[in-house]
Amino acid sequence: MRVIRQPARTTWPELCKRATAPMKEMESLVQEVFDAVKHDGDKAILRYTSQFDGVELHDLRVSREEVEKAVQQVPEALKRAIIIAKNNIHAFHNAQKPKGIEVETMAGVRCWQTYQAIEKVGLYIPGGTAPLFSTLLMLAVPARIAGCKDIVICTPPREDGSVDPAVLYTASLCGVDTICKVGGIQAIGALTYGTESIPGVYKIFGPGNQYVTAAKNFATKLGLAIDMPAGPSELMVIADASANPEFIAADLLSQAEHGVDSQVILLTPSEELIEKVKEQLDMQLPQLPRAAIADEVLANSSAISFREREDIVDFMNAYAPEHLIINTSENVYYADNVRNAGSVFIGPLTPESAGDYASGTNHTLPTNGYAKQYSGLTLQAFMKSITFQEINATGLQSLGNTIETMAEAENLWGHKNAVSVRLQTLKNKDA
Amino acid sequence: MRVIRQPARTTWPELCKRATAPMKEMESLVQEVFDAVKHDGDKAILRYTSQFDGVELHDLRVSREEVEKAVQQVPEALKRAIIIAKNNIHAFHNAQKPKGIEVETMAGVRCWQTYQAIEKVGLYIPGGTAPLFSTLLMLAVPARIAGCKDIVICTPPREDGSVDPAVLYTASLCGVDTICKVGGIQAIGALTYGTESIPGVYKIFGPGNQYVTAAKNFATKLGLAIDMPAGPSELMVIADASANPEFIAADLLSQAEHGVDSQVILLTPSEELIEKVKEQLDMQLPQLPRAAIADEVLANSSAISFREREDIVDFMNAYAPEHLIINTSENVYYADNVRNAGSVFIGPLTPESAGDYASGTNHTLPTNGYAKQYSGLTLQAFMKSITFQEINATGLQSLGNTIETMAEAENLWGHKNAVSVRLQTLKNKDA
Fold it and tell me: How confident is the model over B23-34, as a mean pLDDT?
């Protein structure tokens, strides 16, 4: 870890920069795959799955038998853990149910707003070394609470053509039975256009590698919505001399093991703490199976000291971390001043991994500084609002002239006339 | 208007297609302008304003004197109308203030969610033939309620280098004093990077022509958020024999006058109504200053009859109209079945123009079928949510093993360890 002492504000923009690799130009590849999926449907999917993933499939859909078999295979302890996590995630997201509003803005002018589920949603669950059943929980639970009618899971098949049992168990637990064995660009293409086996959707959720990210961006050009822009995961810890360095080191390592492009930052008023955390890192790092990855991440990461807590707050908000741990003797001060962050973990006994898995909050969060303008995933991301209005005679008589005057000033006479013909009719009735 | 009788469901996808012009490939132009704005700041803006708009400016910011002069110039009747509209828009959007939630998902595991304003937002107000002060109301009022700290208006200057007085009056009324004389791609570039005169922002709102739309899409690649994808305006009317054909015709024309790419559709169980509406269209059309535009739109528009009201509802939801007028003897049935629409106007005395200007609802709405996955503009579009959690000893003792089990199953041992070191410390304390 680089140690940086009281950096001048002029250096902050540089310190807030993420070490993101430049996005490879892969639009032509995405275009090619999408075109093929559009025209050849399942055939194209099977071809690309063979070509890109090296897996020969006959059926793109997970069968009921496969799910039943998977449910048998998952250890009971893991099942119990997944059920507890699901219940907590359900409780937190169920509480987010938006209440519609209704306002009579003027006598006789009644306006209201309701929320509706997005009918068709796609959930992308990455494959690779770790089966991300936790991500499936984070997407499927709110999709079900929202009431999305068609929920389609896409996840890349393993080498033998199967899907990880824990993922299938979680899908089954969440009541989602449309599970497609497809990953990468072709999965996003299938969710965009629909194929014989894979239903098309209106919005695509979930993380993925750079191919999936590029494909999701491409899908937005074709009219689909996506959850949020993706980027490597990151953790900022604010800790002072009161914090246990062993915990801080463990938290930094839990983030650092994600991937070589992860980033961790420690902000502290205590230079002594930095030294103690470094000692702990040296002790804990070698014990991790993913030590090589974590080591590379730490080499690119920083511990930054500030004299004033106001500077810590300002730097934190300028950085806008995806995850923020606050472990100090002044937690209320820091928590009250969070403006830009994805998810915040407060106190010595609240590790980030609690939110990654099981406490109830969502782990799909804005990275790369996007917390300045994006929320983490909420129930409402699976819904949209619609406004309604009904105006009666009293209302139109009060408001009509206002509309006419404004429409005329914007040179939109048809807009004015839609009011005028009605006011005239009301006048004739009164006469 | 084309008349289509009881179309088969197989023909619906074709009937739901919008007559959108293919997006011109202008990414290289956008890239060029953005690069110049990034490197030359104000100088580049002034150069492009001269080149694209034919206007020579010395100062990109509207001065306090210009605003004061504009306030004098706006007729009192228009001021009164704008104030009434503002009050209604304020009332409806103020009622949308999101309440945070707090849930103790398990004993000792406290999770909560708060909302924060997006600190820096840009509001793009198109110029052209009509000064769109109504759009400024729709963007600035919720931005102020949300509490956005920096609100930046960009609007193209008129030929003489000035900005329409009604726009300046509205900005002043809404308490926004950062008004920049810049339009087109260069405006979006300035809001993206910031220049000497024009502050950069985190999210850009507002409609625009195809150049502005392309530039907003480009800005999303650079990390900015935008309100929603843009498209030509559209209106669907559901009316039956009980409706006044004069009103229906006036409503269709109010939409048709927007631009040649607008689209209007009438759905009805009554073929007699179609004939009466056509008569009314023939009578009203010639009286409009924008008759030529409206005539062209009507030529591309349809009146569709259905025998069953269920088919009307299904077709409406498949089309997902931006604006929907329901003017029937069964309004409650139709309103209750709206799944996909931007804004709905119910009853004989509720013209779309009420919502365009003054009733209180927002007129920034999803077009082109995007109502399937996007909301119209809400207060929350100017905010983002942040989740928090705090776990105490009881909580971690209950939940810790769940997190450990899940992390282990996902091969993330660092995640597990962040819990284990804490549980061990608690154990040592208890001992």
Answer: 86
Of B116, B344, B368, the CB nearest to A223: B368
CATH 3.40.50.1980 placement within chain A: 2-20+232-360, 24-100+116-229
pLDDT of the residue at A314: 98
Q: What is the pLDDT of residue A23?
A: 60
Question: d(Cα B239, Cα B234) in Å, to the nearest integer?
Answer: 16
pLDDT > 70 in chain B, percent: 98
Which residue among the candidates A93, A258, A323, A363 is catalytic per the annotation? A323
What ipTM is given for this predicted complex?
Answer: 0.96
Nearest-CA residue of chain A relative to B231? Answer: A223
Q: B397 to each of A80, A246, B167, B394, B426, how far by Cα in Å?
A: 16, 18, 60, 5, 9
Spell out the CATH class of A2-20+232-360: alpha beta
Q: Report d(CA A174, CA A377) in Å as an integer.
A: 17
To test the contact with chain B by mutation, choose from A373, A385, A423, A428 the residue with the greatest count of B C-beta atoms within 10 A, namely A373
Active site residue A257: no
Q: What is the CB neighbour count within 10 angstroms for residue B310?
A: 11
CATH architecture of structural domain B24-100+116-229: 3-Layer(aba) Sandwich (3.40)
> Residue A397: how many CB atoms within 10 A of its CB?
18
Highest mean pLDDT among B27-31, B70-74, B255-259: B70-74
Per-residue pLDDT tens over the stretch B262-318? 899 999 999 999 999 999 999 999 999 888 988 999 998 999 999 999 999 999 999
Residue in A234, A257, A322, A404 annotated catalytic:
A322
What is the C-alpha separation between B108 and A171, in angstroms, rounded? 28
Counting one residue from A and one from B, how many pairs have CB atoms under 8 Å apart? 417
**What torsion, rounded to 10 degrees, do the Cα atoms B248, B252, B253, B255 define?**
140
Cβ-defined contact of B350 to A390 (cutoff 8 Å): yes
Report the gap between the CA of B290 and the closest CA in chain A (Å).
Answer: 8
Chain A closest CA to B142's CA: distance in Å?
A: 15
Option in A103, A356, A425 nearest B91 (CB):
A103
Q: Which residue ranges of chain A lie beneath pLDDT 50?
A: none
Q: How far apart are CA A375 and CA A366, in angstroms?
A: 7
pTM for the structure as a whole? 0.96
Residue A230: DSSP 8-state: -
| Catalytically annotated residue among B66, B234, B257, B322 | B322
Name the pairing type of β-strands A383-391 and A109-117: antiparallel
A355 vs B389: CB contact, 8 Å cut-off?
yes
Q: Tens of pLDDT along B308-351?
A: 999 999 999 999 999 999 999 999 999 999 999 999 999 999 99
Contact residues on chain A for B84, CB-CB shorter than 8 A:
106, 399, 402
Q: To probe the interface with A, which of B377, B388, B398, B404 has the most A CB atoms within 10 Å? A: B388
**Segment B213-251, tens digit of pLDDT:** 999 999 998 989 999 988 889 999 999 999 999 999 999
pLDDT (0 to 100) of residue A22: 58
Which residue has better confidence, B199 or A411?
Answer: B199
B71 falls in which pLDDT band (50, 70, 90)? very high
Q: Is the pLDDT of residue B23 over 80?
A: no
Average of per-residue pLDDT values in chain B: 95
C-alpha triplet A10, A13, A17: angle, nearest 5°: 150
Active site residue B296: no
